[in-house]
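Budget justification aside, the reviewers requested a transparent look at the raw inputs and outputs of the sequence design task funded under Objective 1. We therefore reproduce one unedited record. The lines immediately below are the structure tokens for a 300-residue chain.
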């Protein structure tokens, strides 16, 4: 019971210490919050980019343009052959008339297309491959196989830019991890310097406590709580900055998505991510203060 009482006393002492110097405490928390907000914002950005990338992968399609002399019987035979292949998830056919109507709706010059005497469009077969981006070798093998079918004239696909987006996200993940490590070290140094200054200011008190038999753990405890509070409050500041940024970007991003016919909406930080952020920031503050106090005690 005495052990828990000492911890409660140390925690209350730490809160009192921060409240007695509100300006300097606020500045320290803001610096920590800004340092932690940078990797947090990058994490949220990558999280939303992965959602976009996943939606593109799910809608990735390959288009087969059949020869002009292909008959409906040839199309039915081709569809039956394609549906039996394990590499194909979904397949659908578009007739020349349906293709012309769709082109008139999308292009906006239906009057010009309507004046044509003959429909120049061929039969079109749209294929949704299985695991196209994550298994490019299998996808390329499927493309070559479809190109050799007798009724197929041209195979059209646009997967290169999806691969580039996936590679960019992978590279950005590495950058985020490196940035998190560097800025985490910066938080350690900030808390370390702050607590080291506090131990220098309370040098005489620490010496008196040591003379009357106070242990290193007893001396270290209130400073550890101060460092942990700095980290925790800095984590809350970084979370608040991320929330404000998401609110500022939510409306423009949704408007941009509507222009592309998408229902995409920005995803913010989840409750689990918030707990990780607060736990990590508090842990960094605790480690930084422990290093500062331990160094001070062993130097005296």
């Amino acid at each position: 019971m005495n052990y828990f009482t000492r911890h409660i006393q140390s925690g209350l002492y730490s809160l009192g210490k921060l409240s007695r110097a509100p300006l300097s405490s606020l500045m320290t928390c803001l610096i920590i919050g800004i340092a932690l907000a940078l990797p947090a914002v990058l994490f949220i950005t990558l999280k939303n980019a992965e959602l976009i990338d996943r939606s593109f992968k799910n809608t990735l399609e390959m288009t087969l343009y059949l020869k002009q002399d292909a008959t409906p019987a040839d199309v039915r035979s081709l569809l039956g052959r394609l549906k039996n292949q394990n590499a194909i998830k979904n397949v659908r056919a578009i007739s020349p008339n349906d293709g012309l109507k769709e082109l008139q709706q999308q292009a906006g010059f239906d009057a010009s297309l309507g004046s044509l005497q003959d429909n120049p469009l061929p039969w079109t077969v749209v294929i949704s491959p299985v695991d196209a981006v994550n298994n490019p070798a299998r996808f390329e093998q499927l493309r070559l196989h479809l190109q050799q079918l007798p009724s197929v004239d041209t195979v059209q696909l646009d997967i290169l830019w999806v691969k580039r987006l996936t590679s960019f996200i992978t590279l950005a993940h590495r950058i985020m991890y490196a940035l998190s490590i560097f800025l985490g070290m910066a938080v350690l140094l900030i808390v370390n310097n702050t607590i080291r200054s506090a131990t220098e200011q309370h040098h005489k008190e620490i010496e008196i406590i040591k003379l009357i038999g106070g242990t290193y753990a007893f001396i270290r405890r209130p400073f550890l709580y101060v460092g942990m509070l700095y980290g925790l409050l800095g984590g809350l500041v970084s979370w608040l900055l991320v929330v404000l940024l998401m609110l500022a970007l939510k409306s423009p991003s949704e408007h941009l998505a509507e222009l592309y016919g998408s229902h995409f909406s920005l995803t913010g930080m989840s409750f689990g991510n918030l707990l990780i952020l607060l736990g990590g920031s508090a842990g960094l503050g605790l480690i930084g203060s422990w290093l500062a106090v331990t160094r001070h005690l062993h130097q005296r």
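The mean pLDDT is 78. The first helix runs from residue 2 to 20. Computational costs for records of this kind are itemized in the attached budget.
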